[in-house]
């Protein structure tokens, strides 16, 4: 049984190769997947332990074990709020194949999911990326978007807490990326060609009236029905796409306006299982505003884990 470290995950999961593996996974079929969790209140915060299993029958069983401790960054500086392990078992005989560092896998998988959306939906001449939120995932999202759109020349980072935006911008700048933190979200979004949101907001941050024609919006936060990162005008104006159709019910940015009759569920045009189908074309016009809801899920973790194991078995 292999033990796969975080450094191995980051070394293997180069963006183009990972995005192609995710695209190929979506062309191969839908894994069986589930979710189970336990929560507890400790020191006034809610701690969560999650199990995210997925199965490709005859191929592999996998499950991500996740701890979510929101007060970690304050109590233990440098320790992320979300940490994980990923276990993979043979789909043939059930034997354990590997334990993979799940935190790095989550960063790469989640950013790769959004990058696939960018590859399929964003304009090829996009120049300015606005990163809304400055958590641990934010720099990975920025790097992934820039890999899929080499036309991007700068990143503007906004966060409610300015010093965290400063830190993410500095991390990206150390990679040679033209990044800076900003304090005026409206002004930044009005310049954006791609807006990527990764927050825990429960009230909309990005306003649809700020979006210029041709903008691509990538939503990564808003993973419960009572969370919102964008307002109703955004979903009215945009062509809507999701990574998986079943994630719609958990996305506040979609299910809330659907429930109130602001938009019809039929406005969601396709998920990645359709978008990645050979020959599928969304016929994007230059002025179209596109919105991709990254809902994540155990199926993406399994696709990523199998890509990692294949790469270890057949190194380039």
Q: Bin the helical content.
A: 25-40%
Q: What share of residues are in beta strands? A: 25-35%
Side-by-side strand order of the widest sheet: 10-9-8-11-12-15-13-14
Separate helix tally: 11
> Per CATH, which architecture of the largest domain?
3-Layer(aba) Sandwich
- N-to-C order of helices and strands: EHHEEEEHEEHEHEHEHEEHEHEHEH
Task: Provide a quick synopsis of the model.
The chain is α/β, with parallel strands linked by helices and 316 residues long. 35% of the residues lie in helices and 26% in strands.
Annotate the secondary structure layout.
Elements: E1 2-4, H1 6-12, H2 15-28, E2 32-33, E3 36-42, E4 45-56, E5 60-68, H3 72-75, E6 82-90, E7 96-101, H4 102-121, E8 128-132, H5 138-148, E9 154-158, H6 162-174, E10 179-181, H7 185-191, E11 194-197, E12 216-219, H8 232-237, E13 239-242, H9 252-259, E14 268-271, H10 272-275, E15 290-293, H11 298-313
Parallel strand pairs: 1-7, 8-9, 8-11, 9-10, 11-12, 12-15, 13-14, 13-15
Antiparallel strand pairs: 2-4, 3-4, 4-5, 5-6, 6-7
Helix pairs in contact: 1-4, 2-4, 2-11, 4-5, 4-11, 5-6
